[in-house]
Amino acid sequence: MFHTDKTFFLAPYLADNHWTLIIICPSTERGYIIDSISREKDEHSYLLTSIIDKAFGFPFLWDMVNCKQQKNG
C-alpha cells in the first residue's frame, strides 16, 4: 500500500461546476466529504470516493461533514 505514512490527503473535487473537499485519512480508513450543496447526497453520489477506495485497495468509511449549506445551490 502506498502513502500509509501520511496522516491525511486533501482532495478538492470539481463536479457540475461545484467544488467539494474530500479529506482522506488512510491510517484510519476514513474519508470526509465537505459539500455545501449536499442535500440528499451520500458517499455514493461522488465518483471520486469509489476511485479512492480502489486506489488504496480497501473501502473507506465515508462521513458527510455537517457544514453550512448554500441557500440557492
Considering DSSP H and I runs of 4 or more, what fraction of the residues is helical? Answer: 10-25%
Q: What is the radius of gyration computed over CA atoms, rounded to a whole number of angstroms?
A: 12 Å
What is the average of the pLDDT values?
87
* Number of E strands: 4
Order of SSEs: EEEHE
- Termini separation (Å)? 38 Å
Structural class: alpha+beta
Low-confidence parts, pLDDT < 50 over ≥5 residues? none
Strand order of the largest sheet: 1-2-3-4
Give me the secondary-structure topology.
Layout lengths: L8 E7 L2 E8 L4 E5 L12 H10 L4 E4 L9
Parallel strand pairs: 3-4
Antiparallel strand pairs: 1-2, 2-3
Structure in words:
There is one protein chain. With 73 residues, the protein is of the alpha+beta class. It is 14% helix and 33% strand. The relative contact order is 0.24. The model has no long low-confidence stretch (mean pLDDT 87).
Offer a quick outline of the entry:
With 73 residues, the protein is of the alpha+beta class. The chain has one helix at residues 47-56; strands at residues 9-15, 18-25, 30-34, 61-64.
